[in-house]
Each structure stands twice: as C-alpha cells, then as structure tokens.
Design a protein that fits this description.
single chain; mainly beta; 7-stranded mixed β-sheet; 7-stranded antiparallel β-sheet; 3 helices; 19 strands; 13% helix; 44% strand
Length: 219
C-alpha cells in the first residue's frame, strides 16, 4: 500500500527529541501500527519508526525506510515529520512522503492540508488534496497528481481484484454478481471498510470481514 516515507537518521536529534520507542518491520509484508495519539502508520518491510516518550503531546517522528501516514486531527498538537531539509507540519490528514535515491523529496497529499517548510527559507507552501510538493537541488515546486482510481463500467470482479492487490484482502462475491458492471471513483488511500460498505449498499449485499483470514465475504 505504499509508496512511502524516507527520513534521514538525524531528524530527531536536530529537534531535541530522544527516541525512546522504536518499532521496526523485519517481515516481508506491511506492518500496521497505531501511534500513541491514535494516528495510523502502514510500515513497509525493512523500515522503522522512532519517537519520544511524550509523543502524544509532542508529535515529532523519525522514519527510516518507507511508510504511509494517516494522522489523527489535533489542532493543539501539530504532527511533524522531518526529511533532510524539509519539514511537513500536519493537523489531521493522510499523505505520502518519499525521498528518492537522488535525494529528491516529494510529498503527496490525499486528505486534509499540510504546510511545507524548507530549512533556511522563509517561504511556506500550503498543500491541498491532490497537490504534490517536490524539493531537490535546493529548488521547490508544486504540481498536481491523480489521487483517484476510476472504474468505468467494469466488472465488479475487477474492483475485487483491486482490493486484493492493494489491501491484501481476498474478496468473495456471489456468482451472480461477478460480472455485474460498476462505475466508481475511489481515493487510492480510501479506508477499506468504506469501499466495502459502498459496494454492499450499491448491490444490496451483506458482508463479513474476517481479519484472521484477511477475507471479505459478500452474500
């Protein structure tokens, strides 16, 4: 599920944060983490996050590797992530941050709003959903990206395949619904349950989500 977040190892020390909690993903699959402030992280393989003991009040975090954040809204305690010379300040949103091999940093915003700052510069960039911030070679730019995927009169089984490939849940549909057509636009980072509920309402189906088997059954 993610293109993700790549941070350098000096972020916390530069901001006077002592990392007392370290969570590492040594498996081959995405690890789902709930932070002390109830924000959610999808931590990719060979990645880790670290933060201070008072994180719920001082929401600064360091990432090594790759991750996708969905941040709980808290106007009193902004959520900050540090990546090289950039700082992303969040109130409540979902976004991706990525540092490429050539040290180019990109931030893609799916929901909410974020403020971007670059070390040593007074200018601030306020992103809205669908905005992409890029910083590299001491130059910053703001463009747009497509945060949706469209299914135009496609079989419901195609949407089921999309769910399996992007969320890791096998979808079981009644045979009579497999070839039914659907036209729908989905946020690429939409909550799985929201998509399942929408399909259920559109086709008047009941559903059951089995977390142990990672399986969704419609009937």
């Amino acid at each position: 599920i993610g293109t993700g977040i790549y941070f350098n190892g000096n972020a916390l020390s530069e901001n006077n944060i002592v990392a007392e909690t370290i969570i590492e993903n040594t498996s081959s699959t995405i690890k789902f983490v709930v932070l002390p402030d109830s924000s959610k992280v999808e931590l990719s393989p060979n990645s880790k996050i670290s933060y201070g003991a008072n994180f719920a009040l001082n929401r600064k975090i360091e990432i090594d590797g790759e991750a996708y954040f969905k941040v709980k809204k808290d106007k009193q305690h902004p959520f900050q992530v540090f990546c090289d010379e950039t700082t992303t300040t969040v109130l409540g949103t979902s976004f991706i941050v990525k540092e490429s091999e050539n040290e180019e940093i990109t931030v893609e915003l799916f929901e909410g709003s974020v403020q971007m700052n670059v070390k040593g510069q007074d200018q601030k960039w306020i992103l809205k959903p669908g905005d992409k911030f890029t910083y590299g070679n001491q130059k910053a730019s703001l463009t747009e990206f497509n945060r949706f995927i469209d299914f135009d009169n496609q079989k419901l089984s195609v949407v089921s395949q999309y769910i399996e490939e992007n969320y890791g849940y096998k979808v079981i549909l009644p045979n009579e619904n497999l070839n039914q057509k659907i036209t729908i636009r989905i946020n690429k980072k939409e909550d799985l349950k929201t998509i399942v509920q929408l399909i259920s309402e559109m086709y008047n189906l009941n559903f059951e989500i089995n977390e142990d088997l990672k399986q969704i059954t419609f009937q």
